[in-house]
Amino acid sequence: MSNFIHNMYHFYPLRCKYTFQEPTLKMKTTLIIIFILSAVSIVNAQKKPKTEKVAGKAEIRVEDSYCIGEIKQRVIDLAKIDALEKTFGKVIVQGTNTYIENVNTGERSSTNTQMNVIANSMVRGEFVEENVTKLEWFLRDRQNPTGMKQELWILCEIEGKAREMKEADVAYEVATMNCTNPGACNTEVYQNNERVYLNFQTPVQGYLSVYMQDNEDDIIYRLFPYSKMSGEYESAVPVKADLNYVLFSEQHHKALFPDVSRSILDPISAYTTKEQLFNRIFVVFSPEPYNKPVLEINQAAGGIKTIAPEKFHQWLNKNKARSTNFQTSNIDIIIKK
Predict the structure, then answer these.
(1) CA distance linking residue 282 with residue 328, whole number of Å
(2) What is the pLDDT of residue 24?
(3) Between the CA of residue 186 and those of 27, 143, 179, what are the distances in Å?
(4) Which of 205, 225, 226 is closest to 288 using CA atoms?
(5) Do 103 and 90 form a contact (C-beta atoms < 8 A)?
(6) Where are the beta strands (DSSP E) in 192-254?
(7) CA angle 194-199-200, nearest 5°?
(8) Is the pLDDT of residue 42 over 60?
(9) Which of 61, 76, 202, 294 could form a Cys-Cys staple with 172, CB 3.0–4.6 A?
(10) Are 134 and 157 in contact (CB under 8 A)?
């Protein structure tokens, strides 16, 4: 009945006159824009990593040599490893071969998947949203030759969302140093008032920022970009491929940033009032520009910008969830009085 109009008693033929018209410039432009937007949407959807719900737990016996910040971070890291291994499998390295082991069945399969490193352990995934649901101390009895002895332990339970690592990340290199000669003085242990330098090199150009979590003050400092950097350096500093960067160094500043005055450099010195302090440095890199989190100017720290740890990790995780190009590396340093 598509070619007729029907009333109660008669059928009338429906006559249509159709004239073909060439697409106008406006129509062509509209079609091109729609095509481009569709392509961009598809690419963005492919870049956005798929996440899965994960949960894990871990416990550690507290040794006398541990400081409070260090033991807390260690047990959180181990709980993360437990969660990722239960979801994505355990990484087994034998010689030049890498295998993924199913923690439930014990079955192994060879893999070339890109790996992440947590607490010196290789894992196949990365957290993009995390929530520590339990972090508590407890006593455990242990039998020894002289009788029962109580030991102090710490327990962590964690849950959140994680992504499986499949695509290879940018293989940049980073290390902390106590001198300005790359490769000659790499260290993660500092004495009080010793200068801290960071050596960074990337195979591709991109954008770099550096943060440090101070467990003594329970705050995170933004170390780089320097506090007085602005304009194109406001959120992250553009870095060139293959150039060897030594940050926080007056000696290297002019060669690395010829258009930026040396007076804006923020020298970093290790310092603690305790016997030893455990801090974590976060190196953030992406081939694409990214926006910094909301920061506050800390006058007590010489104007260096800071952020609360909870807000910082929310910012990190949101960026990781948006793009696989957003990468972070952690360096744990110990400062001794």
Answers:
(1) 6
(2) 60
(3) 62, 42, 8
(4) 205
(5) yes
(6) 195-201, 206-214, 219-224, 237-239, 245-247
(7) 150
(8) no
(9) 202
(10) yes
> Is the separation of the CB atoms in 115 and 84 below 8 Å?
no
- Return d(Cα 87, Cα 103) in angstroms, integer: 9
Q: Is the pTM of this model over 0.90?
A: no
Pick the CATH number of 173-336 from 3.30.870, 2.60.40, 3.40.50, 2.70.98: 2.60.40
For residue range 219-263, what is the model confidence (pLDDT) as tens digits? 999 999 999 998 899 999 999 999 999 999 999 998 999 888 889
* Residue showing tokens 């909870």: 310
Residue type at 181 in one-letter notation: N
| Every domain range in the chain assigned CATH 2.60.40 | 173-336
Note whether 192 and 201 are within 8 A (CB): no
Percentage of residues of the chain with pLDDT beyond 70 = 75
Residue 157 near residue 80, CB atoms below 8 Å: no
Distance CA 178, CA 185 (A): 6
